[in-house]
Amino acid sequence: MIHLQELGLSTSDGSMCFEWNESDADNMVVTSPDADTNYDYYHETYTLQDILDKLPTLIIISSDFYKICIESSCGYWDIYYYKSDATELISKKSENIIDVAYDMLCWCIENGYVEKEGK
């Protein structure tokens, strides 16, 4: 979440929260942001669904339209943007779906395809 903020993304819309007490910072719990708890600190966090919702379903460059595709194959997950002639714009792969979704979100932010905070 900190890295996403450093990239300029507002992360205040995370659907879950990490919460902890100052006296026991190693004992974190995950709750809903609107849960009524007695913890000293909290930090919003994204779920896999939150990350997928942030990814653009379509990237337009000049007159080329690139659609998102998410596939699993041979023990890894692949998220890529491609156009109708099968030309890929970018592809990210990982054994863990949340890691590959996060990597693609970072790439989309860095390349201006996801709107940053205040823009």
Give me the oligomer status: single chain
* Terminal Cα span: 19 Å
Protein structure class: alpha+beta
Mean pLDDT: 89
Count of strand segments: 7
Q: Characterize the largest beta sheet: strand count, sense, and whether it forms a barrel.
A: 4 strands, antiparallel
Rg over C-alpha atoms, rounded to the nearest angstrom: 17 Å
How do the strands of the widest beta sheet line up side by side?
Answer: 4-5-6-7
Amount of helix: 10-25%
Question: Strand content of the residues, in percent?
Answer: 35-45%
Unreliable sequence segments? none
How does the overall form come out from the CA principal axes? elongated
Give me the number of helical elements: 3
Total number of distinct structural domains: 2
Element order: H for helix, E for strand:
HEEEHEEEEH
Q: Notable features of this structure?
A:
119 residues; 3 helices; 2 domains; 3-stranded antiparallel beta sheet; 22% helix; alpha+beta
Describe this structure in words.
- With 119 residues, the protein is an alpha+beta fold.
- The protein has two domains: 2-49, no CATH class; 54-110, no CATH class.
- 22% of the residues lie in helices and 39% in strands.
- It contains three helices and seven strands; from the N terminus they run αβββαββββα.
- It has helices spanning 2-6, 48-54, 97-110, and strands at residues 16-21, 24-31, 41-45, 58-61, 64-73, 76-82, 88-94.
- The strands form two sheets. A four-stranded antiparallel sheet has the order 4-5-6-7. Strands 2-1-3 form a three-stranded antiparallel sheet, with no helix packed on it.
- A hairpin with a 2-residue loop joins β5 (64-73) and β6.
- α2 (48-54) packs parallel to α3.
- The chain is elongated, with a radius of gyration of 17 Å.
- The mean pLDDT is 89.
